Amino acid sequence: MNLINPDDVDNLIKALDYCKEIPEIPAMQADEQSQNYFKYVHFFESEKANIIQLNPELSIDTLLYSEYYWFIKYKDNIERYGDDEGLEQQAYKMLERINIALNGKIDWSIIEQIEKTKESR
Known about the structure:
The protein has one domain. The longest helix is centred in the middle third of the chain and has 23 residues. The chain is built from five helices and no strands. By secondary structure, the protein is mainly α. It is globular.
């Protein structure tokens, strides 16, 4: 499974001079790790076309699965403070969008691996 690691995400953010204001998350959940994960998710959501243009060798699959991975990391980090049904719903909707973007050919084994990473923490 090829996912975009934190250093590469940070390099993409710098290369694209990404400085859009990111919506704030609740103060009790605003630890630095949650903020970074949320920044990555927001970046992937809003900059897909620019990321692909900057790195044409990067597949849309890798981009979409990476976005989902960072969302799951964010969701799991936030859920340390209690379950959040809204985040569960967002994860489900994200899977629907990935499946549509990949013409119904989502690789469920990759999704399963991403889901297992949260269980191993």
